[in-house]
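My current task is to audit a protein record that another person submitted. Alongside the sequence sits a line of tokens, each denoting a local backbone shape. Please read both lines and tell me whether the tokens look consistent with the sequence. Do not assume that whoever made the record got everything right. Thanks in advance; the entry in question is below.
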Amino acid sequence: MAGEEGVPHDFRVLDRHQVWADGVERLYEQAKERQWDASRDIPWDAGRGVPEALEVALCTVLTWMVQQEFAAWYVPAKFVPRIHPAYLEPVLFLSTQVMDEARHVEVFTKRLFLNGVGFVGSYPATEASLQGLIQQEEFDKASFLLHVLGEGTFLDLFTFLRRVVPDEASRVILVRAHEDEARHVAYGTGRVRVQLQEDPSAIHRFVAALEERLNFARDVSGIPSQIQEALAVLAGGESRGRPFVRGVKEVAAFQKELQANRIQRLTGSGFPEAAARHISHLHAKASGNAM
């Protein structure tokens, strides 16, 4: 397709059922109304004075999360110019997601350096898994992997972290980010529901997308051990002894909850339960993280 001046456009998403979600126009309006400022709207002074063990644990988790937020930022940005402008509302909504994810990267990074700790650790297996998401060239597959599976899990992670973070600044950050993430997941599950109503065989495309992603993370299963340990420190309130053991149990329960919520999210999007369980298993195997 060419514009008036003969400039070619690379519109690849041409079918409504691949991009549309019922209510996407409302999600766009909500996104505009609920934008927030990482400098102005977070009580940064309330994040100081955190005990060292808890601060390091929090920064460990945030380092891992920032790595994934970059992928959640890059993927919608990649596809916005590929969606035909006839589907304006989804394009507008995805543009708000680009802004949301940029703000998440900003606010998590500011929290990382608030008390002088900064980034903690590196997660090459997570990076390899995310590479499979970023390199996905088909919008419906990328949206399924990101909006339904990845951000669905982050939605649960934000809920867990809101309970266990050691300071009010972090809690406010997570409350704000959770609201953003909820919109993204609502779009993703709604989009899948429309696509499956139009083409039930698309289930096979989504399974294939996950199986393709396994090539990037064959030896990875579940949340990385360093992150599980950091979450346990936050949940227990200490890095050793009975509080840490209690935290380990809370993290184990959280991971079971992740699995149950993922299956519920998939069945709510139109997947048969057997397919939802199979996809959930593949996702945990492929991700090596919460994305």
User: Anything to note?
Assistant: The two ends are 34 Å apart (CA to CA).
